[in-house]
Every structure is written in structure tokens, then in C-alpha cells.
Please model this.
Amino acid sequence: MCELRYPSDLHISLADFNSCNIDTILATIDEVSYSSMWLKFSEEARKSSAGGDFKQCKVFWLLADACSMALNPLSINEPFEAQCVFDGRRSIIPSDFDQSDIDFFTEIFEQVNDPLLRARIADLVWILKRPRIIKSALAAIDSYQQIPLDSHTWNRNGQKCWERSLQLAMSISTAAGNRVETMESSVLSALDIASDNNDFFALWLAELLNQFRLGESKSSHIAEKIKNLAVYYDTQNEYQKSIECYKTASSWYAKAGETINSIDMTVQVAEGWVKQAAQRSSIFKVGHIIANGFYERAIQIYRNIPNDEKPRYKAAERIADLQKLLTEAGIKSIAEFETIRTPAIDISKFVEEAKNAVKGKEVLEALFEFANIIDSTSEAQMRAIATDHLNDSFFLKLYAGTYFARDGRVIAKHEAIGLTGDISQCNAQIWAQMIMDYQVNVKAYVHAFIVPAHHALLSEHRLSEIDFISIASQSPIVPPDRAVLFGKALYAGYDRDIPTAIHILAPQLEYLVRYHLKLIGVNTIGLGQNGIESEWSLSTLMEIPEAKKLFGEDITFEIRALFCEQIGANIRNQIAHGLFNDFSIHNVHTVYAWWFVFKLIFNTYWNEPPCINR
Model:
């Protein structure tokens, strides 16, 4: 860390720190934050170095390094992370500080006046110094609490500082005294005075209390506060904001034991999706596609109302009305889809077309184009093509089929059709040919469209894991408790980590199918001869008639062809039985499977992710 900065054996002390006039330097910063202190201290370090004062130079570099790290407040063991990681290199992390640096921080943390800087130095001392010094933890907690609780500061340093303060106080238990209770009181007071003009600030404070299981004695009061905020946003036609607030209000009413009020808020969430569907379908180019997903979300919410309470909200009648709106939106959506077509057979032209489809667009439009970069596969069309292939081929009719796995196992067989056989009655042969043709198509799609478009997307847009979690959380096809898993998987694939993506997606897609089948009353559990009940596998689920009715013929076919069929990619079993190795998992089918699930999720996702608002 000292390379090219100052002599490695240079010793500094509190006196050197005091000589740097830190308060005067911080007074020149318009708005003090960790990033602004990092830049300022780095600048002062270079000045001191140029002037030959290496002790001041070292002081400033150590302070700059301390401020450069990213705060991950909810991690007990590693609350500070490298701000930048690139091409095998990274910025500073706590383990980069040597013992003399730690001793210097220990000597100065009580003398630092700025609360933001004092919190960081004291926190580092708590993490790095052995044996631990409890007063450094207390100093960090108290300093973090001095960060103002207001909407402006919240998005800069406030949220992470208060989260870290609570996490640290709870981790040291009784040694923290009454600090947790004091912070709880401060957050409740700030929530009380938060106004509608503070945007999401009251909601964020309520989420902070919920995150640390605080404020439960005030649950009803908090719920009422957030409910009023939701009503305000509703009157302003800011439906996404009102939905988020109604959700939070419902949670707090549930904590208070006010079940009816909690369900009332949940119903308002459903109606918020309905209002937003009507709004988006009248504004956006792909509005009916978006509305379709919103109506689905509303229907799911009404279905999940407890059976005893459904008559109160006329849930059955409302679901019927929403089903009609969903059908209408689906019909109108067809005209909104745009298909990339070209008569050229040179793959380079397809590649350029795919790149251009996503280039130069705002992030959501680019993601939409990527999700729809090729037409959805049609089962009817695949069946017709397969039938034509069998009719036109002497050898395909003459010989039986035997299919082998990569390791030499026979995984499927079918009889020969015969030269005089009726192909229309040969379902096993037609199905096998459909799967084989589909695999050829997948290979072409990945090389000509998906990979080029993905590269263009990566070159223009930097998305984070939380963005994909946000997308998943707003997609009605994703089960309520699986948004983080699906979001992580989608991000992994976006970040070119296909092994991680597919290991999460394969089992989670199976759960997604089972979840939606159960919602419509399908029994997904089989009873064995020994009386043991077990969940049906994805292959079994996709073969029941209700699956085709629920997901449609085309999606059902692709899930079977990609994840279930032995003569196909068979991704579900490859993952379940550990059959992929370090090399075989990187193939066109796993790439296509990631894109296929992304398409399912994104095409029911709304047009403005919450993280952008925040």
C-alpha cells in the first residue's frame, strides 16, 4: 500500500495527524461524503508528497484509503469491501492495512471531529485491532448516529450508516447499553415528521425498522403512516409508489395483529396493479404487453386472499373481471411485438441485426429488445416441420432410432416408421424429430442472435444484481419468495457466469411451474405404493394437461425440450444428477435456457424498475 507513496518504514503518530488540520480541509468540501473525502485526502496526499512532507503524505493516504472502501452494512464479518474490482485488480480492503496503520488509527479515532470520518476510523479499529477495543465500537455507533435522518442524506450516506450502526450495536449486545433503543426512538421520530414531499423517506424508515425488528410496539401507528402515504401517491397517479407503500402498510398491520386492515392493504396493491395496467396501456408503445403482466399480478393477489375473507372482497367476481381484461390485453399485445427478420443466410448479417436491435437504446428498451430478439418457438410449427422431414427422408422412415448420452448410455429409442407407415400416427418419432430440429434451431439462435445482442448489451449498459432482483420481484410469473434467487440467476447469466445461472434456474423453474399449477388447484404430489407422498418432477408436471393450458403449448414445449427431454438438452436432470462438468456446462443450450427464462420473466415485468426511482 505504501509503494510509490511514502517510505515503508515511516512512522506517524497523533501529532502528525493533528498537524494536518483535517477540519480545515473538510470545511472546503461542499458536501462531505466518503467519496468526497477520499478524493480530497488523495489530493492533499499528492500535495504533501510533492512538497517533501512524507509524514503528512502518509496520514492523508491512510485516511483516503479508509474512506475509499464501500460499506456493506449488513455484513457482520466483512462490512467494508473494495470499491473497484477490475481485470484481476482491486482497490483497498481492510486486510491491506498493516499493524502500524492499525495502531495509528487506534491512536487517532477519538480525536477525529467529523462524525462521518470518526465512524469509519473507529469501525476499522473495531474490525482490525486485536484484542478488540469495545470503545471503538461504541465510538463508531455513536458517530454513525450523528448522520442526519433526512431524505437528502439518506441516499448519500445515511441509510448505510444507520444500518451499520444498528447492526454493530446488536452484534455487541449488552455492551451497547441502550443505544439500540435510542436509535429506534430516533427513527420513529423521523418517520413521524416525514412528509409526502419527502418521497419514499417514510417508507425507507419503516423498512429499516422492519429489517431490524424494531418499532413493533408502534406497528399500528407505522402502518397508518405508510397507508396515508400510499393514499397520497394514489391520488397523484403514482401507482408504483402507492403499491410499494400499500405492501409495507399491509406488513405492519399484520405485525399489529390487524388482519382485516392488512388484507385491505393487499387488495389495494392488487387494484394498484390494475390502475397501472390501464395507465401503461394508454401511454407506452408496448403498453398492452406490460398491462398483461400487471393484470396477472392482480389476479394472483386476489387468489391468495384467505378463503374465509374472499367473500368480503368479492374476490371471485373480481378475478373473473380481471381475467377478461387479461385476455383483452393479451390479444392486443400481439400487435405490439416486433420481430427481427432478414432474408439473408450469412450469419454475419444476423449478428449485426441482433447487435443493432439493442444498441443505442435506454436500458429497459434494450432489455426488451434482447428478450424478444427472436420469435417464440411454435410447437405447431415445429411439429409441421418435423413431419415434413420424416415424410421427405427415406432413411428416417426406414430405420429405428436409438439415442445415446455423451457418456455412451442409451437414453431413448423408437421404432422405425416403415416406408408405408402413417407418419401422422407416429407420435414418438415426430416428437423425437421435433426435439432434434429444436436443438439445431437453438444453436443457430444463440450464435446468430443471443450472444451478439448480449455482447452489445454489456458494452452499453452496466446492470447490477439488484437490478435483476428488482425485475424478478415485479414479474408476476416469479413466485413471491423466489425473486432474489431468480434475480441472482439472471444477473449471473448477464455477467457471463452461466454455470451459476443454470444451477439456480433449473430447480427454481421447476418450483415456478409447481407453484402456478398449485395456484389453479392442480395436485402436484404423487402417492407411492408404500404410502410415501412425493412431489412430481418437472418432466411429470409438464406432461399433465393443465400445464399446457396454463403456460400455453409453445412455452410448455420449450420447457420440455430444454429441461426435460433425454434426447434434448435435458438440463434439469444434468443439474440434478451432477452430470455437467467444467466444460460441458458451457454450451448453447445452457445459454439459451438462461435467455429463455429471462424472456419469461422480463416480458411480464413493468417498464420502470423501483431501483431507478430510488
Q: What stands out?
A: The first strand starts at residue 70 and ends at 71. Residues 407-411, 607-614 have pLDDT under 50 and may be disordered. The two ends are 36 Å apart (CA to CA). Residues 363 and 578 are 36 Å apart (CA to CA).
